[in-house]
Amino acid sequence: MLTVHAYAAPSATEPLAPTTIERRDVGPTEILIDIKFAGICHSDIHTARGEWGDAGWPIVVGHEIAGVVAEVGSDVSKHKVGDRVGVGCLVDSCRECDSCKQGLEQYCLNGNIGTYGGIGRDGKPTAGGYSTHIVVEEDFALRIPEGIELDEAAPLLCAGITLYSPLNHWDAGPGKKVAIIGLGGLGHMGVKIAHAMGAEVTVLSQSLKKQEDGLRLGADHYYATSDPATFEQLKGSFDLIVNTVSANLDLDAYMSLLRVDGTLVEVGAPEHPMSVKAFSLLPGRRSLAGSSIGGIPETQEMLDFCAEHGLGAEIEVISADKINEAWDRVVASDVRYRFVIDTATLG
């Protein structure tokens, strides 16, 4: 066993604090990763603060992990010591169901194992990337290509793949009009990726305060949804809308912006049930869909795509003693556009 430094949430109401956790010995098909950077995802906050249910405190969160291989098991063939690797939201799945066989481990029919808050095959709770090291199966570690800095790569393991997967699945590209709702940690990657895919990209944001950023990141158009004229002007405009916002929105209004056969894809996770009227779907044969991260093959494809197009997250690197402050700023939407922890400051 290896004792490593980490930051944990002791309960749903207490601030995160330094601690130590144990990482298991490296098995034959596993690797030990020296974590260099860990992105802060809003999911970390929802989980640790009990907003999605009992988290099993104390809990070490973090599923946007970038680092370097420090040790490999005897049967490992995909990675070697010194390789740059990443870990996203999953550290294992059944590998036997139809979804897993298709490389869709995020939809494992027998339940995948999350990077934190899950129970690993060793029977112990999984602990995430707010730590200095992690042990994972080699199949669930992604190769980070040269051309992406590790700190900018970390958020790609969640925010990047969460947007790449629906844009890829619904064929964003030349000739397609794509709208991204919200320009935050998820949305800013959606703009970058959709633009690189060749789509015509529009940002739909509550106000115009981030308009300059949106256009710089690759948006062709930027509209304020607080202006009722926006919905009149853009009616029937888009082939694909990706909603990154975790708050409950008026989905009927946004459905009206779709073209015939258009799709609105939900990647945000609002607290309350979503409501949409049948007559927002029936005219125009519109669809409302959901999408969750990506499987291992698609996540690697995303990383390679980002390296090819020079894409990384827009980040603010922080030391571990600023994590609680950063969480408060995330909740207040005061970050452009992803906090990343320098894990060298954990111990």
TrEMBL record:
This is alcohol dehydrogenase (NADP(+)). Its cofactor is Zn(2+). SUPFAM superfamilies: GroES-like, NAD(P)-binding Rossmann-fold domains. It is an enzyme of class 1 (oxidoreductase). Residues 11-341 form the Enoyl reductase (ER) domain. The keyword Metal-binding applies. Its EC number is 1.1.1.2. It comes from Microlunatus sagamiharensis. The keyword Metal-binding applies. PANTHER family: ALDEHYDE REDUCTASE. It comes from the Bacteria.
